[in-house]
């Protein structure tokens, strides 16, 4: 609908309009106190850059992205220290993060510092000259209000909330999932992070700190057959060894951690004043015996209020049960006690259980923790030789105790049969080398391989080994590896020496040329570069006697927590099946029985009247000195072995394996068969 206006009123309106256009100039609009708006996508980019820097551990880069006002409240060193504390206390291995859709938020007005130049004056729009006849002068802009660039700006603060999901991979507490809103504010260069300790954990408040608490349980005991206690904690906190020097090297000892230890052990939760295993089972079973510390990550507010953020439960040390039999261990140590040096290993051929590991000189672990016996008698500090367990760490040439393996290789390759005969002259020539029997002894005419084994004829078994070499150059060295030589036995929980099988690879790696017939004939009698430990010899002889099963020696059976929970169980384990027929191994056993039964057998005197059939072999190994190493590995009963023993006497003056080591093996076997 059209509305008509009277002419007079229209003219009056025109006058009024002109009059209004010349009213006083209005005040300019105040300069905005907020910074130019930045795009939300830019905020997401800032959030991602901040999180990436956190993942990289670049705390300085993170700090540079923080709102300057917040930086003024939280110095860089405090910012870095808090983040570093979280990474160290939780043992953070990595950080992954994702960001969600940013959401604009309105933060409350607040004073904010500005370094911007003063805002420009706001111009007044020029009126249209056609609005009045003849036009009017162009108005000038109003003077700008005074502006102090250092003064706080009052006004609304545009913000952005970026949802963040972080996952901290913590070795100590598992994966830590943090869901936070990362608040961004407008700054001079765009979005800046609004930070406080609450971004890590709200429980920190505006200025809290983190603390790591540890709870450590008691160290577990070491137990033996029949409930014998080998090691335990005393009420006063001392680690003591109730059996004193019995099995001392096997059990080992503990001592307090040093500053040097903590350089590596601190990451595993060790602290000054803690003890750590130094040798034997105390060292090898450290993780089982020590248990697992319990940890608490605690947030502490400035007012002292505490909150547990994360917690792991303490697991006390486990009681470790061993296969060591005190009676047999005692017999082995008593047998060695008349010698300055020696070692004996005793195992069960039916399971690989280790019953004794004796080493001379004896070692009382209480010397390391108390300085006295449990009865208060002073103990001198032991030398390294006493702590060193020769039964597993001592590797020596085996001498003639190696001849059974040479025979097994000859049987396996078809070089001989049980019916074969050979000669046993006083010497044997190989190239420019002349090899001798002990004192150039000889057996007349043709002799069986059993007779040659009993008499320990080098001049029979060295040429026999060379014949094997001509048929198959690696047959003997390969078989030695099958019997476990040249590698750790796998006993576990004890440090052991692997020994040496000087095959082609080893000789070349050690700059000694390649394998040859000369190397072969030396290995045939356990000489050359070969080295083996008493445990390896005992285990290998057990494999001959039991029909070809090489066991992985077992010394720990279970680890049990105080509440009865079994945390570790070790079952008997077959390491290898020997690739020699039952018939051939049975014949090897026959030859080893001859060693202790034939009138000239090297072990006959030692086992005279024993009453139980024994299979064994003496070894008198040259070592570059006038005093040889005396060996005697054996098993019994010969036809169905229940025990295997290997005794070594290093550097035995004017001794032999048959005269010096064999009697000690008999003592150990006698204890076993009498119920020890």
What is the helix content? 25-40%
Question: How many individual β-strands?
Answer: 28
Q: Strand pairing plus helix content: what structural class?
A: alpha+beta
- Widest sheet: strand order? 9-8-7-14-22-23
What profile does the largest beta sheet have? 6 strands, mixed
Q: Report strand %.
A: 15-25%
Span of the ends, CA to CA: 126 Å
Shape: elongated
Outline the low-pLDDT stretches: 1-35, 114-127, 129-139, 141-151
Radius of gyration: 43 Å
Number of helices: 22
Lay out the secondary structure.
Layout: H1 7-21, H2 40-56, H3 59-64, H4 68-73, H5 76-89, E1 92-99, E2 103-107, E3 157-170, E4 174-187, E5 190-193, E6 209-215, E7 222-223, E8 229-233, E9 239-240, H6 248-251, E10 254-256, H7 259-265, E11 275-277, H8 280-284, H9 286-290, E12 294-300, E13 306-312, E14 319-322, H10 326-336, E15 342-347, E16 354-360, H11 366-369, H12 384-387, H13 390-393, H14 403-413, E17 421-424, E18 427-430, E19 433-436, E20 443-448, H15 449-455, H16 458-471, H17 475-482, H18 504-509, H19 517-523, H20 534-545, E21 549-552, E22 556-560, E23 566-569, E24 573-577, H21 582-595, E25 615-616, E26 619-621, E27 629-636, E28 643-649, H22 657-673
Parallel strand pairs: 7-14
Antiparallel strand pairs: 1-3, 2-3, 3-4, 4-5, 6-12, 7-8, 8-9, 10-11, 12-13, 14-22, 15-16, 15-28, 17-20, 18-19, 21-24, 22-23, 25-27, 26-27, 27-28
Helix pairs in contact: 10-22, 14-16, 14-17, 14-21, 15-21, 16-19
């Amino acid at each position: 609908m059209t509305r008509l206006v009277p002419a007079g009123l229209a003219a009056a309106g025109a006058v009024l309009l002109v009059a209004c256009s010349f009213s006083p100039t209005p005040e300019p609009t105040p300069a905005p106190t907020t910074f130019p708006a930045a795009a939300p996508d830019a905020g997401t980019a800032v959030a991602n850059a901040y999180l990436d820097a956190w993942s990289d551990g670049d705390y300085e880069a993170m700090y540079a992205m923080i709102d300057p006002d917040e930086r003024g409240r939280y110095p860089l060193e405090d910012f870095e220290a808090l983040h570093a504390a979280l990474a160290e206390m939780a043992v953070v291995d990595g950080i992954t993060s994702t960001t969600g859709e940013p959401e604009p938020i309105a933060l409350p007005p607040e004073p904010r510092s500005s370094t911007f130049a003063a805002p420009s004056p706001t111009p007044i729009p020029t009126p249209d000259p056609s609005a009045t006849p003849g036009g009017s002068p162009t108005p000038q802009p109003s003077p700008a209000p005074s502006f102090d660039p250092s003064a706080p700006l009052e006004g609304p603060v545009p913000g952005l909330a970026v949802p963040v999901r972080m996952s901290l991979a913590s070795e100590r507490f598992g994966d830590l999932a943090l869901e936070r809103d990362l608040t961004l504010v407008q700054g001079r260069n765009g979005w800046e992070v609004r930070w406080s300790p609450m971004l890590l954990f709200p429980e920190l408040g505006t200025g809290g700190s983190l603390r790591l608490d540890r709870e450590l349980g008691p160290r577990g005991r070491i137990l033996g057959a029949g409930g014998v206690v080998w090691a335990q904690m005393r009420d006063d906190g001392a680690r003591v060894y109730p059996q004193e020097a019995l099995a001392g090297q096997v059990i080992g000892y503990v001592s307090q951690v040093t500053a040097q230890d903590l350089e590596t052990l601190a990451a595993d939760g060790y602290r000054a004043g803690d003890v750590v295993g130094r040798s034997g089972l105390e060292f090898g079973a450290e993780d089982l015996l020590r248990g697992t510390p319990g940890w608490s990550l605690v947030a502490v507010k400035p007012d002292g209020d505490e909150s547990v953020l994360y917690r792991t439960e303490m697991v006390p040390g486990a009681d470790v049960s061993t296969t060591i039999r005190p009676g047999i261990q005692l017999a082995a140590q008593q047998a060695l006690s008349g010698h300055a040096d020696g070692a004996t290993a005793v195992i069960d051929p039916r399971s690989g259980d280790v019953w004794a590991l004796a080493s001379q000189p004896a070692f009382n672990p209480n010397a390391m923790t108390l300085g006295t016996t449990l009865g208060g008698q002073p103990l001198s500090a032991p030398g390294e030789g006493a702590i060193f367990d020769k039964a597993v760490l001592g590797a020596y040439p085996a001498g003639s105790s190696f001849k059974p393996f040479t025979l097994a290789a000859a049987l396996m390759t078809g070089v001989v049969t049980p019916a074969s005969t050979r000669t046993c002259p006083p010497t044997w020539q190989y190239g420019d080398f002349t090899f001798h029997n002990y004192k150039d002894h000889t057996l007349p005419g043709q002799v069986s391989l059993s007779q040659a084994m009993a008499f320990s004829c080098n001049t029979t078994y060295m040429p026999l080994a060379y014949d094997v070499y001509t048929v198959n150059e690696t047959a003997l060295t390969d078989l030695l590896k099958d019997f476990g030589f040249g590698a750790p036995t796998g006993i576990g929980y004890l440090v052991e020496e692997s020994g040496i099988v000087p095959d082609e690879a080893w000789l070349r790696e050690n700059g000694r040329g390649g394998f040859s017939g000369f190397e072969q004939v030396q290995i045939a009698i356990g000489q050359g570069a070969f080295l083996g430990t008493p445990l390896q010899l005992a285990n290998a002889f057990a494999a001959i006697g039991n029909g070809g099963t090489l066991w992985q020696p077992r010394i720990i059976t279970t680890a049990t927590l105080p509440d009865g929970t079994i945390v570790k169980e070790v079952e008997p384990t077959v390491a290898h099946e020997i690739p020699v027929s039952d018939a051939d191994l049975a014949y090897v056993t026959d030859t080893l029985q001859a060693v202790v039964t034939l009138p000239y057998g090297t072990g006959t005197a030692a086992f005279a009247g024993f009453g139980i059939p024994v299979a064994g072999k003496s070894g008198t190994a040259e070592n570059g000195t006038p005093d040889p190493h005396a060996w005697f590995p054996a098993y019994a009963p010969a036809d169905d072995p229940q025990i295997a023993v290997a005794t070594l006497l290093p550097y035995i003056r004017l001794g032999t394996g048959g005269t010096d080591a064999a009697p000690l093996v008999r003592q150990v076997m006698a204890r076993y068969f009498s119920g020890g």
